[in-house]
């Protein structure tokens, strides 16, 4: 919720409350590993890249004895990315960013300092340099394979289907990332895959 272009206290709380479940695991994570994670997020934001290397961060954490599932690492990185984009859009200083996290997030002092120190030392955050990120920009893609057991169409029972979950930047910066789920039959997925392959080949020849 915006009033004269400013984020109100209520909307800030709502924004953080959506991200808090994805940030909780960072409280039990070493500061140096959080810094590695934030460093990868910052790299993508600075390069305007929509693809973060979750697997590399996941393996680095595992090699340092900090076992986290790939899903946990991914959701944490997406949450941190939302926080940093929010801070940049609002032109927050490091002190203001830390105060926002202290008041409205579940992050411990150690975790929030690690995030803020890494972000503000190695990026242009707070200068609104990332505000040209476009609503709808794809930031992540998940997929699930399922089997239809109940449907109004009898000929579709026991047919495999694919669910694609597209995660993109929301039009409202306070909303962070929003998801869109697409259910595709196997023929539809194969048609989409073929179309994407053709597009990729065309792009390589440009």
List the helices and strands and how they pair.
Layout (H helix, E strand, L loop, with lengths): L1 E2 L2 E2 L1 H15 L7 H17 L6 H10 L6 H20 L4 H11 L4 H13 L16 E10 L12 E10 L7 E9 H19 L2
Antiparallel strand pairs: 1-2, 3-4, 4-5
Structure description:
By secondary structure, the chain is of the alpha+beta class. 51% of the residues lie in helices and 16% in strands. The protein has seven helices and five strands; from the N terminus they run ββααααααβββα. The protein has helices at 9-23, 31-47, 54-63, 70-89, 94-104, 109-121, 186-204; strands at 2-3, 6-7, 138-147, 160-169, 177-185. Strands 3-4-5 form a three-stranded antiparallel β-sheet. Strands 1-2 form a two-stranded antiparallel ribbon. The protein is globular, with a radius of gyration of 19 Å.
Number of strands: 5
Spatial extent as radius of gyration: 19 Å
- Cα distance, first to last residue? 43 Å
Structural class: alpha+beta
Could you spell the SSE succession in H and E letters? EEHHHHHHEEEH
| Low confidence ranges | 1-10
Could you write a compact summary of the structure shown?
With 206 residues, this protein is of the alpha+beta class.
Salient structural properties:
7 helices; 206 residues; 16% strand; globular; two-stranded antiparallel sheet; three-stranded antiparallel beta sheet; disordered N terminus; alpha+beta; 5 strands
